[in-house]
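Anyone up for a design puzzle?
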């Protein structure tokens, strides 16, 4: 990963100073023994008051050991580090949620202990809590992933639940990432499958990003798309090693997730890795919170959602959506019609739902709505409404739904 970081920095520098500054990490280490390297890094940076942020599970997996390593460094005289632990509490359903309560819980501890760095030990949700708390209090944070489960470890955007609504708020990325393979290979199989599912979602997110650039002049960066595509291809080509949960496979998956995150850092937004499939996932998450149900794994949702979006997009190609329109009375926007042939070519790069399902099954992840636990009614509603989760994103799902809404309004007898 050190080589990857160096290569992407060089490529970013070639694009100009703003892009060079976007990759603002000191180190990325994915290797055996990275936990000790994390302790060494914090000590050498002369951080005096360190908060190790964990939840109940990640404290046992890595947090407790990291605290011991930092305290040992202090005993050896390597630094004057005082270490404090913040254990983020779960909600009533037993889930750790990046919401107002969790944010205030960590921010209050930062203020109480006058912390000057947060070390995030956990998965994507805990990282979201830490990145926004660090941003708000004006201190850096360090990433210590406990499972190869998501691609958001080095993101600058924090998906936060505010009054039950998912909003992605600009925050900060980590100063360094230390992913210890001794820890990652022990991650529960469902978290490994979730990480793979999050990577499969890049098939549809990359398409939606291109679609938005063609039809709505959304900003597009070819280099970020290329980094994401290569990380995705590398994962798919190594599906057997990932399924075996070998050290090589886990290292490759974790590295690919981080590379996807670097692409988002480079571009400055989540477009390379988040399209309609993520909007479905966020919609389901908000619905489960509203109903007081246990949350589903983010990557598991994204993987199955990508199957649904892939199926819809392939169907639209077969029906000639952009050429003539699904409904005679509902004209397709001219910007879609103008580049429909290019859109069709891009959609052909997305595997069909059956192929995606086989890949998900190979790593032991859910590959049907029934296995995932999302009911047909919720799926149907989300396919109609999920594009509103990110109203500024111009996905094909959004275009399709807006045309259907226009047709329904114009049709005789419509309400």
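Challenge accepted. My sequence:
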């Amino acid at each position: 990963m050190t080589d990857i970081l160096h290569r992407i920095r060089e490529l970013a520098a070639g694009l100009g100073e703003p892009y060079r500054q976007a990759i603002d990490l000191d180190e990325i280490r994915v290797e055996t023994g990275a936990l000790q390297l994390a302790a060494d890094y914090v000590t050498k940076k002369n951080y005096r008051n360190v908060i190790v942020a964990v939840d109940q599970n990640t404290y046992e997996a890595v947090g407790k050991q990291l605290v011991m390593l930092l305290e040992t460094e202090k005993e050896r005289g390597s630094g004057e580090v005082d270490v404090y632990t913040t254990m983020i509490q779960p909600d009533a359903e037993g889930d750790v949620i990046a919401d107002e309560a969790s944010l205030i819980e960590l921010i209050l501890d930062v203020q109480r202990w006058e912390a000057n760095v947060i070390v995030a030990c956990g998965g994507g949700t805990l990282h979201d809590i830490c990145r926004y708390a660090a941003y708000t209090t004006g201190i850096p944070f360090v990433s210590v992933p406990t499972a190869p489960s998501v691609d958001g470890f080095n993101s600058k955007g924090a998906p936060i639940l505010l009054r039950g609504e998912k909003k992605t708020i600009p925050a900060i990325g980590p100063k360094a990432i230390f992913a210890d393979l001794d820890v990652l290979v022990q991650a529960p199989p469902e978290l490994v499958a979730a990480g793979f599912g999050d990577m499969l979602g890049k098939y549809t997110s990359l398409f939606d990003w291109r679609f938005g650039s063609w039809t709505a002049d959304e900003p597009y960066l070819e280099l970020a798309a290329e980094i994401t595509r290569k990380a995705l291809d590398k994962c798919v080509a190594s599906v057997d090693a990932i399924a075996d949960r070998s050290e090589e496979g886990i290292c490759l998956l974790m590295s690919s997730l981080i590379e996807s995150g670097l692409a988002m850092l480079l571009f400055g937004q989540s477009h390379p890795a988040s399209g309609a499939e993520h909007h479905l996932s966020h919609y389901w998450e908000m619905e489960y919170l509203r109903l007081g149900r246990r949350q589903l794994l983010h990557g598991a949702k994204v993987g199955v959602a990508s199957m649904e979006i892939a199926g819809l997009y392939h169907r639209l190609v077969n029906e000639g959506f952009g050429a003539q329109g699904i409904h005679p009375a509902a004209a397709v926007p001219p910007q879609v019609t103008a580049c429909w042939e290019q859109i069709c070519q891009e959609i052909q790069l997305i595997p069909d739902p059956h192929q995606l399902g086989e890949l998900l099954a190979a790593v032991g992840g859910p590959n049907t709505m029934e296995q995932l636990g999302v009911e047909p009614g919720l799926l149907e509603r989300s396919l109609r409404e999920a594009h509103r989760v990110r109203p500024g994103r111009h996905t094909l799902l959004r275009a399709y739904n807006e045309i259907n809404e226009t047709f329904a309004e114009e049709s005789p007898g419509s309400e």
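A detail worth pointing out: The chain has a mean pLDDT of 93.
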